[in-house]
Design brief:
Order of helices and strands: HEHEHEHEE
CATH superfamily: HAD superfamily/HAD-like
Oligomer: single chain
Distance between the termini: 21 Å
Number of helices: 4
Shape: globular
Number of strands: 5
């Protein structure tokens, strides 16, 4: 799974797209999180954690904080997450296009979903 994610995200970067992470984790947790998913934090153009300047998902501020660092507008961004409230609805309220990643087809409802990160390549 992580190999496919690395390959897909690398292909997005090769297309000139910016790739980032927004997490409700603390900055001190980023190393552990990235190690667990087998990524080096320096791979990403931005990694935003909870904090006074950014807020917490699903608040709009955390999404806008990441966009500000990337110098992109909400309409230029796509956010992919695995929770309805924090990721999908939070991103939509902040003006971003949102997708749910639902690898095992467990999320019911009328949401735009993908089952695998590789599906992003057909969307951009």
């Amino acid at each position: 799974m992580y190999h496919d994610a690395k390959e897909t995200l690398s292909q997005l970067k090769q297309k000139g797209l910016k790739v980032g992470v927004i997490t409700n984790g603390l900055e001190s947790d980023v190393g552990k999180i990235m190690s667990k998913i087998q990524f080096d934090p320096s791979f990403f153009d931005v990694v935003v954690t909870v904090g006074p300047a950014s807020g917490i998902k699903p608040e709009q501020e955390i999404f806008h904080h990441a966009l500000s660092i990337l110098n992109v507008t909400p309409s230029e961004a796509l956010f992919i997450g695995d929770t309805i409230e924090y990721d999908y609805e939070g991103a939509e309220k902040a003006g971003l296009k949102a997708l749910l990643i639902d690898r095992h087809d467990r999320i019911a409802g009328d949401y735009e979903k993908i089952h695998d990160l590789r599906a992003i390549l057909a969307l951009v």
